[in-house]
Amino acid sequence: MLLHLNSKMMFRTHITIGFLAGLLMLPMLTPLNPVLFIFLALVGSAMPDIDHPESEIGRKVKIVAFLFEHRGFFHSLFATLLFYLLFIYYLGSLRYGVYVFAFVIGYFSHILSDSLTREGIMPFHPLSKFRVHGFIRTGKGFEYVLLIVVFMLSMWRLFTLN
Ligand SMILES: [Zn+2]
Question: What angle do CA 36, 41, 47 make, to 5 degrees?
Answer without folding.
Answer: 125
